[in-house]
Amino acid sequence: MSFRKRPDLRPVSRFMKNIPLWERPAFRYPIYRPGNPQTRLFLPQFWMKILRDERNRSPPNSVHFEVHREMGKHDIRQYLEKIYEVKILKIRTYTLEGNKTHERSNDEPWLRTTFTTTMFDRKFAFVTLEDSTFEFPDITKGYQTKQDNVKKQERRVVMPKGIETHTQGVPKFFLQ
């Protein structure tokens, strides 16, 4: 008796293990077959990375994301509304093409052939929020107070009057 492998349970290939998670294509949704139980996804197959606008030119009710390259506007809206319960007014997306580079083989320098490699495309989304505003939290706030406390403690340490700070550890015989 031979058993055939189910086509919807494909392992990740050796090639895909070398690609970082954010550059991999999204996994295919399992094929529905009558009689099978309902497929449940507890984690989304896509990712979104929030970006900070360094120039602060964006209005307070808009947020800039880098998203998975296979996500559409509908996927972005569902992701934010279902997971984070945020009301969305408008979504604009754009894609930047990856850079093309020409490389020569390092193993065989006598070959004159070059290989063209292309970086993956990157997709971005501008999301306009309906009723709320977004402001980045100040994550350095607690860190700065710790640094200030350390500096204050260093100032409190008073050296004894007979020791000069620039000649610590040197016997007085050599200082005369």
In short:
By secondary structure, this protein is α+β, with helices and mostly antiparallel strands. The protein is built from four helices and six strands.
Number of strands: 6
Mind describing the biggest β-sheet?
4 strands, antiparallel
Q: DSSP helix count? A: 4
* Uncertain stretches of 5 or more adjacent residues: 1-9
Write the layout of secondary structure elements.
Blueprint: H1 14-17, E1 48-51, E2 62-67, H2 73-83, E3 88-96, E4 100-104, E5 114-118, E6 122-129, H3 141-156, H4 172-175
Antiparallel strand pairs: 1-2, 2-6, 3-6, 4-5
Protein name: Large ribosomal subunit protein uL23m
Keywords: Ribonucleoprotein, Ribosomal protein
GO molecular function, one term: structural constituent of ribosome
